[in-house]
Amino acid sequence: MARFQFRLETLLKLRRSEQHDRQRRLSEAEEAIRRLAMQYEDLRKHQIALQQDTRQLAAPGPLNVDLLVQAQRYESVLQVQCRALEQQIALIRTERDRRHEALVAASRDVRTLEKHRDRLREKHRHEQLQKEMQQHDETAGQREAVRRQREKRCSA
């Protein structure tokens, strides 16, 4: 049986490589979101701790105005940093979604080529079986013709 040769194998390899690259890029975006989310959580923990410290500074008794002012300034800085991280996370999520769509498209391209290859392979296999059957039929026909000629000779 003749060996099946998919003419678009190089294109399929390129599409798989592109799919792998898009998967890697999607993973990078997800990792960036994870890191930024961890930073955001750390900032939120600092904010909560600072708010608790500020409440203690404002407790009845002697009041240290300088420390309260510093705490409020620091809390403002933390709020700005939290907003900046929220914006970065939103931008990267948008990019991640775009990369996910690109991965889906690349995967669809790969599947399409693989299905095409599989259909051609099956068609090739079917054609090869047909040829083999035809050869077997021809061989059987030739044997039958030889057998008939022998019978004619023997009976004559």
Summarize the SSE layout with pairings.
Elements (H helix, E strand, L loop, with lengths): L8 H49 L7 H91 L1
The proportion of residues in beta strands is under 5%
What is the average per-residue confidence, as pLDDT, rounded to a whole number?
A: 92
Main sheet overview: none
| Helical segment count | 2
Number of strands: 0
* Number of self-contained structural domains: 1
Order of helices and strands: HH
Look up the CATH topology.
Answer: Helix Hairpins
CATH class: Mainly Alpha
Which residues sit in consecutive blocks of at least 5 with pLDDT less than 50?
none
Class based on secondary structure composition and strand pairing:
mainly alpha
* Rg for CA atoms: 37 Å
Task: Write up what this structure looks like.
With 156 residues, this protein is an all-alpha fold. It has a single domain, classed as Helix Hairpins, CATH 1.10.287. It contains two helices and no strands. It has helices spanning 9-57, 65-155. Helix 1 runs antiparallel to helix 2. The longest helix has 91 residues, at 65-155. The radius of gyration is 37 Å and the shape is rod-shaped. The model has no long low-confidence stretch (mean pLDDT 92).
